[in-house]
Every structure is written in structure tokens, then in C-alpha cells.
Amino acid sequence: MKSAIILMVIGAVIFGATFAGWYLLNAFACGMSPTGCTGFSLKWHDGEALQLFVPTFVIGAAIFLFGLWRAVRAKS
What we know:
Helix content: over 70%
Oligomer: single chain
Distance between the termini: 12 Å
């Protein structure tokens, strides 16, 4: 059970760090715009950056779900 919780925490940290990196990359790109930036939105259609971030999103989610599966299996 303890290993399942550790896996869930690791998966959540990877997923959260990836999302934070994606958010900060978008904020940096918005700040570098010469036309100014009054607010920004996450550009999910940017294929160049997403090809770097999607694998870590998937890895983090998979590790979390594997830990969750182990926790549920251990309970029953």
C-alpha cells in the first residue's frame, strides 16, 4: 500500500511539474511579445512545444494511475 501512495505522489509531481513548465513557457512567450501582453492563455495547439510536454504529461498520469490501481487492488 505504501508503494502505491509513493507512485501516486511521484506521478502527481511529474504531472504538476510538467503543467507548471507548460504554464511558465507560455508566460515567457507572452512576455517576450513586442506588442505587449495583458493576459495570456495556454496555447494547446502549439505542436512544437507540445511534442516535448505531452510525453511527460502521459508518463506522470500513467505512474499516478498505476499507483491508484495498486492501491485499489490492495484494498480488495
